[in-house]
Structures are given as C-alpha cells and as structure tokens.
Amino acid sequence: MPATRLKEFLNSHGVKYITITHSPAYSAQEIAASAHVRGKELAKTVMVMLDGKMAMAVLPASYRVDLEMLRAAAGAKEAHLAHEDQFRDAFPDCMLGAMPPLGNLYGLPVYVAETLAEDEEITFNACTHTELIRMAYEDFERLALPTVARFSIRETPKVAEKQE
Fold first, then answer.
1. Which terminus of the chain is more solvent-facing, meaning fewer CB atoms within 10 Å of its CB: N or C?
2. Bigger pLDDT: 43 or 23?
3. With left for phi above 0 and alpha for psi between -120 and 50, is residue 36 left, alpha or beta?
4. Is pLDDT at 157 greater than 90 in this prediction?
5. Please, which residues bridge with residue 58 across strands?
6. Which residue has the higher pLDDT, 155 or 99?
7. CATH numbers and ranges of domains, the chain
8. pTM to 2 decimals?
9. 3-state secondary structure at position 138
C-alpha cells in the first residue's frame, strides 16, 4: 500500500488525520471534484527546480505556480518546472504525480503558498490517485517546516464559448 510510509510517519508524530478515498483522478481539479473538496482547499504538489536543485511547491489546486515569484521567494537565480524524468525515482513509495507535500520524507525543501497557510486544515494526495489525507495545517507546518511565500496565482476558469 503506497501510503504506508506516510501514515507511519504521521502516526509516529501523533498527528490526527483523516483519509479520504475517491475514484481515480489525476489532475488536481479532477481530484477535488471526485473527493468533493473545493479546489482552494486541496493542496497540490508541483515539483520545481531551483538553481538546479529539486524542491516542492505546494499550492491550492485552483492556483498555478508563478515561477518568477517563487524564484524571488527562494532567493534563487533560476526556477523552472521539473520534468517527470527528474523526479520519477525520488518517490519510490508513491505513484507518479501523487506525492504528498512532506518534502522532509524525501530530503526536499518545501515552499507553501501563503493562501494555504491561512487555512486551518490541509488536504493532499496520499501517494495514490485514489486517496487523500486531511490534517491540521499547524501539524503539517510542524512536520514539513515549509517556507511560506507568495508564489501562486489563481487559475482563471475557461469561459465556454457561445454556440450559435
């Protein structure tokens, strides 16, 4: 079971959490809809490269990373999205794209969008495309030791074109 390491870690630190099971979904917005969680309340983990080193950018599902803002917040010279082949093997206990935002489990720094830090809870992938973890944000912050910064921009919904 992919989430075993994650749950053992949370349990060993006395964290109270709930598991949410949902039908298979792969994009953050699909997951939010499938699990009946608002896009702003679901944290997605985006893998980035900051000065050639991998890091996690954690932001609401309904937002996107502004790489220039992240670069400045991290004090980096360069910032870009990581390619799957750069992080495919970094999370051996997780399905590709379903890694939890606990970089400390994988030796990675974590940057959290300030909009998530304002919430009482955080909900995120639990190493699979069918399971989420919801826990208190303060527990997440205590364990992940993230850098909280402003680097996300709300996605603008695509307006359906009128059909005549």
1. C
2. 43
3. left
4. no
5. 45, 112
6. 99
7. 4-154 (3.90.960.10)
8. 0.89
9. helix
